[in-house]
Amino acid sequence: EVQLVESGGGLVKPGGSLRLSCAASGFTFSTYSINWVRQAPGEGLEWISCISASSSYIYYADSVKGRFTISRDNAKSSLYLQMDSLRPEDTAVYYCARVGGSGPYQTNWFDPWGQGTLVTVSS
Amino acid sequence: QSVLAQPPSASGTPGQRVTISCSGSNSNIGSNTVTWYQQLPGTAPKLLIYANNQRPSGVPDRFSGSKSGTSASLAISGLQSEDEADYYCAAWDDNLSGWVFGGGTRLTVL
Questions:
Q1: Please, which pLDDT band fits residue A102 given cuts at 50, 70 and 90?
Q2: Which residue in A63, A123, B30, B52 is deepest, having the highest Cβ count within 10 Å?
């Protein structure tokens, strides 16, 4: 079964840091691009970052550029999100999601998604 | 404010057909494929429609997607109570070099 499991969420003070992890299983992790998508409480979905299979291509949403760093360890089938300079508006459930489709990103989608991990930024 | 525009809510009675619209621009929907996700209460999003109108295995054929120009639509026919969920459209945006989502539409089955 293809599965993604996030961990590392928690309560952190504004200006603090947190590192999220996403453990993959059931597929050849090293051949897929993976994303982070977040959802603030009661709000919609917001894509925040994508990393290609070999880490050659990395993209960020403007809202997190310069503060968040995506990375992966293909040997461990794991994805990471290092979050620095956290703000209250970063409070959200963070999902990792695998890119589906074999073509360029313009034709791709997200499937499956993990169950999410909650990050709360508050003093 | 989301890059893709969706109505915040939609509703229908069991058995009815409902449609949810998603409006974008040339840099996203106008140039790239559209995906729809379903998010049941308290759960993670799930892929519903990909490549504008393709259904993953396991998704009932009551769900269909279409795209024309810079807009897309999700149609649900034979509405059922278990379809009550939030629905999101998404597409890659060439100008932003990233994916953009609609704000989501909450579907209520009356």
A1: confident
A2: B52
Instruction: Using an 8 Å CB-CB cutoff, list residues of chain B that contact chain A.
Output: 2, 31-33, 35, 37, 39, 44-47, 50-51, 56, 86, 88, 90, 92, 94, 96-104
Phi, psi of A28 (to 5 degrees): -80, 95
- Is A27 at the interface with chain B, CB within 8 A? no
Contacts of A60 (CB under 8 A, 6+ apart): A48, A49, A68, A70, B98
Peptide linkage before B7 cis (omega within 30 of 0): no
Average pLDDT over residues A103-119: 93
Kindly tell me if the per-residue pLDDT of B24 is higher than 90.
yes
Q: Is the dihedral of CA B56, A38, B101, A74 positive or negative?
A: negative
| pLDDT surpassing 90 at residue A105 | no
Strands B71-76 and A34-39 turn out to be unpaired
Gap between the Cα atoms of B23 and A49, Å rounded: 23
Q: What is the SS3 assignment for B18?
A: strand
- In 3D space, the residue among B12, B47, B16 whose CA is nearest the CA of residue A98 turns out to be B47
